[in-house]
């Protein structure tokens, strides 16, 4: 029996460039001491106080069906958080709780794109973006950004591909580049969306990890709240990656229709997990700062190491838990460099090509191991690059 084209073409064929990651995992499974700097998984786990709240909720009986849009207190808490950070009036009616940010990205595209319509996304991109778009039956079209601009998108490049498109997906602070989009960049994006009647899907899961500049949600720009769907998550801000709890924030009518979609797909998120997320948000900024602090610290470690050499270039690391390194001076592609680094030094990083062609000749390094291991691995990476160059 034949499967649908939609499901068999989600990845576009091939591995989407993640061969180095899978190879590193195989080596770890064989007992080799690989330092993994690949994926955005915190090296600390969910705070025990959050787990205690989850345990209490589960043992207290909140294990049945939860309200599909999300429990009322969590929706209100998310709305309050967003309103305080953006200045845009937001109520629980603007919020739907989802099984993580990935489910939110899928639902958001399904809400605004009809089958066969074009959905734009920026290159470099988080690995699932094009597959998410293909998965809802839309046509994924990349808009290139440029290393010389620190991967800040150019409005004219987006406009050149916007004719006939239904949506644009952006991510700031950005994975994989660490770039935080400036107000000027976001105002340019907003104008293109208004000029071309695009929905804007804004992935803001790294909004608590800003090291330079200020995070600005495009929903806060003039006339953008009505055409913007914001994706958020507890995964990065509260180290709750495995709990799978996120949200979509958008216009009330969009949320009402998204609730209909969830009723026929995910049927909501486990109540005890939502209770834990609600508890976590109530702990305030101090807990979020505690989760973010290791990455803030390691970014400074990285800057010190990279300032001491002249082979590897650092793309301005303004936010998120990654740094993007320019290794073009070695003459190698990002993929070749990453494979050799893994084979010869047991250090695993992600090739820039894993995230699109705009980052060819770069590697992404996740700052997700302890400080000492991180510094040692990054120093070895720079020495390896210098030797090749």
Automatic annotation (TrEMBL):
Pfam families: Aminotran_1_2 (PF00155). GO terms for molecular function: L-aspartate:2-oxoglutarate aminotransferase activity; pyridoxal phosphate binding. The keyword Transferase applies. Keywords: Aminotransferase, Pyridoxal phosphate, Pyruvate, Transferase. Its cofactor is pyridoxal 5'-phosphate. Belongs to the class-I pyridoxal-phosphate-dependent aminotransferase family. This is Aminotransferase. It comes from Shimia thalassica.
